[in-house]
Amino acid sequence: MAICSGRTVIITGAGGGLGRAYALAFAAAGANVVINDIRADAAQDVAGEIRANGGQAIANSDDITTLATAERIVEAAVAAFGEVHVLVNNAGVLRDRMFISLSEEDWDMVMRVHLKGHYCLANLLGRRWRDLAKAGTPVDARIINTSSGAGLQGSVGQSNYSAAKGGIAALTLVQAAELARYGITANALAPAARTSMTESAMPDVVRKPEDGSFDAWAPENVAPLVVWLGSAESAHVSGQVFESQGGRISLGDGWRTGVTRDKGALWRVEEVGAAIDAILAQAPAAQRVWGS
Fold first, then answer.
1. Residue in 161, 231, 234, 238 annotated catalytic
2. Is 148 an active-site residue?
3. Domains, the chain, ordered by start
4. Burial readout 244-267 (b: 16 or more C-beta within 10 A, e: otherwise)
């Protein structure tokens, strides 16, 4: 039996790039797929491709950034397939500027699509799955969020995007802790692949090789990890952030209490500098901010 047979997955931003790769891979693994994208034609194209290959899929173009419109996505999924088991929050947007050049609109747009977009469907489905669990129905549900290397290490010219993606990583940790009791796992990944966003930001880096060698930036490389995280086999994995690019899967090692000096009494201002210097001398060097 296929690894996701009988499971229904909602994928946002699935009309192209990583979302499309995830959708095709989930369908190949036996899942029913809801292709959500504000580009209705793109969503229909992907859903049609899946159905032409013998899979089950519907297209949806409702807005993920309000509860009212996100509810329509859930309703469409349930009407078509009976239940939802997996949410892949993938949709995103860029408004790249150096920090002091960011407009309020640049900031708000990125926060709305990424952070609020991650909130709405997860909140609705989380409540649905909680109610099922409390009613005695077994739940084996998955929330798969999308962070970024920019959110984990920062990225020059992307302070809004970095802040949103860092927030998503932290959100994932809280979701995993709070929702485990209901049979829900929450994980995030920081994928690196060729998409419309990365092609606009760094086209020379993500270009497909012309010599036929391994295409390390192909979005299809990330899809197997996402499908496995959406399957029943991943029930023991939650609260993790994975980085994925090419043939590499890495576990993100996030913020944790590090090198410490404890005086056991009030620090005097003139003592703090030496203590900080001693801490930094022992601490591992941080990864560099992207672009620095």
1. 161
2. yes
3. 8-251 (3.40.50.720)
4. bbeeeeeebeeeeeeeeeeeeeee
pLDDT digits (tens, 9 = 90+) for 56-80: 999 999 999 999 999 999 999 999 9
Residue with the two structure tokens 């590090």: 258
Query: Looking at 148, 159, 231, 244, which residue is catalytic?
Result: 148
The three-point CA angle 150-284-242 to 5° equals 40
Would you say the C-alpha torsion 7, 60, 180, 254 has a positive or negative sign? positive
Q: Does residue 182 carry a catalytic annotation?
A: no
Measured CA to CA, the distance from residue 187 to residue 171 in angstroms comes to 10
Residue 238 bears catalytic tag: no
Residue closest to 174 by CA, chosen among 107, 214, 232, 115: 115
H or E segment at 242? Answer: strand 241-245
Interval 128-184: pLDDT, tens: 999 999 999 999 999 999 999 998 999 999 999 999 999 999 999 999 999 999 999
Report the greatest alpha carbon distance in the chain: 72
pTM for this structure?
A: 0.93
